[in-house]
Structures are given as structure tokens and as C-alpha cells.
Amino acid sequence: MNKQANVQVSDFTAEVKLKGFKAYEIDSKSGGHSYNRKDFYKISLNTGTYVFHYADRSFETNETILFFGNPRIPYSCEVVSTINEGYACLFTEEFLKLSDRSESLLQSPLFKIGGTPILTLNKEQKAAIAPIYQKMIAEQDTDYAFKDELIRNYINLIIHEALKLQPSENTPEHKNAAVRITSVFLDLLERQFPIESTDRPLELKTAQDFAKQLSVHVNHLNSSVKEVTGKPTTAHIADRIIHEANALLQHTDWNIADIAYALGFEYPTYFNNFFKKKTGHIPKSVRAASL
């Protein structure tokens, strides 16, 4: 990604973070929007040919679909057709949770691993849902004092309409289960970084943590990762933590105790021992060498 593209991603992400939401139209000419997926929920109405990869499953569709993206679950989309259209809405968890009734909607099968993140729509269903997006897009630029609440209602309405639909049966099996679950694990691992604040410490620190998040048995995760990469799950986690630790030691002014906490260590001593075992150095010497 070039420098200009990085700026565009940063600007778009900053805008969604500031407002808590963003609705926009998708078309073949615009190329859509890039943003940091680990920050936002997404609901999109897509017409075209796509291959969605969601957790350890893949969905191929050439119809009109509703897609529900959860920032805690790795996903990606391959656009196959040259003509594609639709609408999308990004929103933060905090934005939707300002409505007391919305929190339970985020716990619905639409946003869960093993649930139904893709629903196929017929023409009538598309005709009913598309205008809701159009209203969101028009409303987000107004000066109406209660527009946030109105947009929350629109988002809730789309979710409720989706919950009334039958799940799509177009869910082909992925070709290689070990490759897919490994890819999902590595994506989920990377999504936790970079660590940007000591107030948000690392959440997933062990193979068991990742297995629970991915709704698979830890033995299945470990065997898949080892089969595909030749390295155990714990080695990948440890290597990524060490990489981040080096970056924080060299490029921030956080004290070592704060770095230890941010990386998920209960006590600085645990971090010091872990770091020395993996690198042969103590954190303090890496910090000193960078000054």
C-alpha cells in the first residue's frame, strides 16, 4: 500500500472513530473504502459475485446478500465480478451500545463465529432494505440534533429485518480446513497489534484463548497450525509478542512495567524472564541501546 493509500485509510478510519458510524454507497467505479477492520462492525448490502472468507469458512455468492462483519472475527472479501453495487455501514460497538436495546443484537447469530454472517436476499427483500441505507447516507450529513439516535434505529432495523430471514444455504466447505483455521488464527493474532495504549492490554495470550475465540478445540487449532506452518501455536504467539515488545521498548517512552502490562503480563518480572528466555537480553538493555 502506498503512502497516499495509507493516508486515505487513516482519514477514513479516523472519521468513523470520531462519529461512531459511517454509511456509504458501493459501486464498481468507487472501489469501496479501506479501513482498519479490527475497529468496526460492518453491515453491507452487496450485489455481485463475491467470495467471503469468515473465520474458518468461505462463502461464494453471485446474488444479493447482507453481510455482517464483527471486528473480533477475521474476514476478507474477494470481488469476482466487474460489476458490483450496494451499500455499507460501519459502526463502533460503543456507538450502537448507547441504545440499551442494541447490545443484545450484537450477540445475535449474525455476528458470531458459527452463526450466519451472510444472508441471501430476493428482489423484494433488497427493495425493502436498500432504502434504509439510503436514509442513513442522507441523514448522516444533516444537522438534525438526534441524528445519531435515528441512525442507530436504522441499523437496528436492518439487523431485525435480517433476523427474520432464513439463513443462506450457500455455505460451501473450505477446501483445506487446516489452512483456513491457520489463516484465521494468524489474522486474529495480528489484529491485536500494534499495541497503542497501556489502557488496552493484550486480550488473547494463549493457544486456549485463541481456540475459545475461534470456537474450536485447542488441540485442533494446535495441530492445524503445526501442520501448515511447522511451528506450534505458542511459538507464533511468543514471536509476535517479542516483536511488539522490541518495538515498544525502542519507540515509546513507556516504562517497562507498563509495557509488560500492555503485553498481558501480570508482573514485570514475568515479562523480564520471558523476554530474556526468548532473546537472550533483558528489556532494560534493549531500551538502553535505543537511547
From TrEMBL:
Residues 183-289 form the HTH araC/xylS-type domain. GO terms for molecular function: DNA-binding transcription factor activity; sequence-specific DNA binding. Keywords: DNA-binding, Transcription, Transcription regulation. InterPro entries: Homeodomain-like_sf, HTH_AraC. This is AraC family transcriptional regulator. SMART domains: HTH_ARAC. It comes from the Bacteria. Signal peptide: none annotated.
